[in-house]
Amino acid sequence: MENRRQEILDAALEVFLERGFDSATMAAIRERSGASTGSIYHFFNGKAEMAAALLKIATSQWSLQSQAAGLADDPEQAVKASVAGFLSWGLANPRLFAFMDDLLARSRFSQDFTPVGDLIDAGRKAASDAYAAWAQAKVVRDLPWNVSYALIMGPAYAILRNSAGGAIDQSDVAEIVQSAWLSVRS
């Protein structure tokens, strides 16, 4: 049963990347996955729910790569682990990264993406709260979360977008990871 769900998600990702989210159809996903319409709707109410499921997979894989969740008491290690994990995950999963990147942009402007937006908002709230606690402890600069997030994650997003799934030199990864911390530390 779980295999069928994953097969549908794998097919959805490919269709979304080939056609774009708006042009992707449930029929194309059904055809690509080999699943029946009933099977697809057993697992998902529609494309937005599939997108949210793909985002959950992406963020859980990123979290496993970074293991930053357990490092909340050490802001430097949490920031560095999160950025390093994100880069590692994005390089290993360029197609899922491309979809996630597109999804994040879309989620801000479309009500169709409510499940995605809710998931993103929950993650941002947790990260914002952790950063605020670090700022209160004067370990990081007291900046608005949007600015802090851009300083921490912006360069990682940029290099992944520009790498087109290619390799990135490990010295560049190390520089981005170190710069993320230096940009926000007190």
Low-confidence residue ranges:
none
Summarize the main sheet: none
Tally of structural domains: 2
Overall pLDDT score: 87
Q: Which structural class do you get from the secondary structure elements? A: mainly alpha
Shape: elongated
Strand coverage percent: under 5%
- The CATH homologous superfamily of the largest domain is named Tetracycline Repressor, domain 2
What is the CATH class of the largest domain? Mainly Alpha
Could you state the order of secondary-structure elements as H and E? HHHHHHHHH
CATH topology of the largest domain: Tetracycline Repressor, domain 2
Radius of gyration: 18 Å
- Please state the second-level CATH architecture of the largest domain: Orthogonal Bundle
Number of strands: 0
Instruction: Give the termini distance in whole angstroms.
Output: 50 Å
**Count of discrete alpha- or pi-helical segments spanning 4 or more residues:** 9
Helical percent range? over 70%
Short description:
The protein has 186 residues and is mainly alpha-helical.
Architecture overview:
- The protein has two domains: about 1-45, Orthogonal Bundle (Arc Repressor Mutant, subunit A); about 45-185, Tetracycline Repressor, domain 2.
- It has nine helices and no strands.
- The protein has helices at about 1-20, 25-35, 35-45, 45-65, 75-90, 95-105, 115-135, 145-165, 170-185.
- The protein has about 190 residues and is mainly alpha-helical.
- Helix content is about 75%, strand content about 0%.
Please name the defining characteristics of this protein.
Tetracycline Repressor, domain 2; Arc Repressor Mutant, subunit A; elongated; 186 residues
